[in-house]
Specification:
This protein has twelve helices and 13 strands. It has 395 residues and is an alpha/beta fold. The strands form two sheets. Strands 7-8-9-4-10-11-13-12 form an eight-stranded mixed sheet, with helices on both faces. Strands 1-6-5-2-3 form a five-stranded antiparallel sheet. Helices cover 31% and strands 21% of the residues. It has a domain of 35 residues.
Length: 395
């Protein structure tokens, strides 16, 4: 006699499971929110840099989102460094954790669902000096309360957001929004000095008639002009670290080139470090000194721009490079054409990630060794690292 019982759909949650998830999420979110509001002494969120030549050191960072379906591990053990006066490009598919990593540095992850659950974010702003052992002291942003973060966000660390029209307030003039940054973080600043500084910043980023643009509203400017305003705002506080989250996504090709040239120019003039987040490998090749490749919340490969483009090792890095549009001569027709390559499969569910390599099911070089645990970091050279089982014998 055949059984009439239906098999449970693994993608559906029972009422009991849903209640358990909500209860667990509420407890976790309450704990992390309480930690951010706690009144603690600076010594409790002060640590030391592993390398004094770095502006930022991220070590084993975990940023999760507590949803009704489970915990989404958007950033799942990321470690990277941003050296002084250098540009570090972070690349990967949409949803790989690039933007969440940058928002974690700024403590701007959407709360209470989004929380930094572990790791360290060491930021060196050169104001804390040295400890008794001669180590360079710095802030650990993960342990820093929100009230203390206000002192460095926008001043020492600034961010150029992806879409300027949604980042600029439509009811305030450009000048008023620029003045706010200066008045908040500048010393001995009044309204007249703030206005002069704002106009100077608009001129610095190549905006014509800055005195006139100062009184404009955001909707009166083009997309490229608004993005220049965002760069001026990011530079107003003389930051040591600039985070550019896909700053040219909403712009046409000509304006993209102008904005990237401008960003590189002001970076050289201000000697600030830049964390450039993009999915455009052409931008990374032109702009970056170092490249970090992310996939499903983890880093799969990192190195100098020459390491990544001249000698890519991870199958995912090779795949995204092959996916770039290119042309080759067709001998029969005489036309230049080639089918665009795409990586097969899709990114795994961030709620129930496998215990093996996350890229295993999409990899065309997968072997038996790939069925083990998640691959460890393998240093191919002093600057080049890869997380792949295929290179374990090469050490």
């Amino acid at each position: 006699m055949k059984s009439t019982e239906k098999k449970k759909n693994p993608y559906l949650l029972s009422f009991k499971e849903s209640r358990a998830i909500i209860k667990s999420n509420m407890k976790a979110m309450k704990t992390y929110e309480k930690r951010k509001r706690a009144k603690v002494l600076p010594e409790q969120y002060t640590t030391v840099m592993k390398n004094a030549d770095n502006v930022l050191e991220i070590e084993d960072l975990h940023t999760y989102f507590f949803t009704d379906n489970g915990v989404v591990k958007s950033v799942n053990g990321v470690s990277l460094e941003v050296p002084r006066d250098k540009i570090v490009g972070i690349v990967g598919e949409s949803g790989c954790g690039k933007s969440v990593t940058s928002l974690s540095v700024m403590q701007l992850v959407q709360a209470p669902q989004g929380q930094i659950t572990g790791g360290e974010i060491r930021f060196n702003n050169d104001t804390l000096g040295y400890d008794e052992k001669g180590n360079h002291k710095c802030y650990d942003i993960v342990k820093m309360p929100t009230s203390a973060m206000y002192g460095i966000r926008g001043k020492d660390i600034s961010m150029i957001f992806q879409e300027p029209m949604t980042s600029l307030n439509p009811v305030f003039t450009i000048g008023k929004q620029l003045d706010e940054v200066i008045l908040l973080h500048g010393e001995n600043m009044d309204k007249e000095k703030a206005k002069a500084h704002s106009i100077n910043m608009l001129s610095l980023v190549g905006i014509p008639m800055p005195e006139k643009i100062y009184g404009y509203y955001p909707h009166q400017l083009s997309g490229g002009m608004r993005q220049r305003v965002m760069i001026a705002m990011a530079l107003s506080g003389s930051p040591k670290l600039i985070i550019a989250d896909e700053p040219t996504t909403a712009l046409d090709v000509t304006i993209q080139s102008q904005i990237l040239d401008l960003l590189k120019k002001v970076q050289r003039q201000s000697h600030a470090a830049v964390m450039l987040i993009t999915h455009d490998l052409g931008v990374v090749a032109e702009m970056a000194d170092y490249v970090v490749v992310m996939y499903a919340g983890k880093i799969v490969e990192k190195g100098t721009v020459f390491d990544i483009f001249d000698n890519p090792l991870h199958p995912y890095t090779m795949g995204i490079q092959k996916a770039k549009p290119s042309f080759s001569a067709d001998k029969k027709s005489g036309h230049e054409q080639q089918d665009l390559y795409s990586i097969p499969g899709s990114v795994p569910n961030p709620i129930n990630l496998p215990d093996t390599c996350f890229f295993k099911d999409r990899c065309d070089r997968c072997k038996e060794c790939c069925s083990g645990g998640y691959p460890r970091e393998i240093k191919v050279s002093e600057t080049h690292s890869v997380f792949c089982h295929l290179y374990e014998d090469a050490e």
